[in-house]
Amino acid sequence: MADEKNHKPKITVGEKDAAPEAADVSDAPEKAPAAGDARYTVGDALRDGVGRISAWVRRSFPGQEKAFWGAIIGLVAAIVFLAVGPWPLVVIAVFVFVGVAAGQALDGDPRIVNTLRHLFNRNSQ
User: Fold this and answer.
1) Residue range 92-107, pLDDT digits in tens
2) Taking the CA of residue 4 as centre, how many other CA atoms within 13 Å lie in the half-sphere pointing to its CB?
3) pTM
4) Cβ contacts of residue 100 below 8 Å, gap of 6+?
5) Distance CA 29, CA 58 (A)
6) What is the DSSP string of 71-85?
7) Cβ-contact 52, 59 below 8 angstroms
8) CA–CA separation, 29 vs 97, rounded Å?
9) What are the start-end ranges of the H helices in 1-125?
10) Residues 68, 61: contact at Cβ < 8 Å?
């Protein structure tokens, strides 16, 4: 008798022939939006572009992907060095280094700070 009082009717909205199990689509994986879709964002486009470039690098330079990316980073560093000069580049590098160290400290894993302490600690010799 207690079961009859607590029974709540299920209300489904949609087609009359649809089963209640078919109405729940929360477990279904979402499809990636197509390029013409209104939900296609800049992040989706960037992700697609990076995926295509990474696939091209893997096909074109099998086993040498990291060497390729190292060359690209070196090229960008050389262009920046020539564009801004050596001293501004050193200042940028120092600020990036300090920023990474501060971020690590805030994350609770201050590896850079600990390494610097170890290097400059007089008792560690």
Assistant:
1) 889 999 998 898 888 8
2) 1
3) 0.46
4) 112
5) 28
6) HHHHHHHHHHHHHH-
7) no
8) 40
9) 2-6, 20-23, 42-60, 65-84, 86-107, 111-120
10) yes
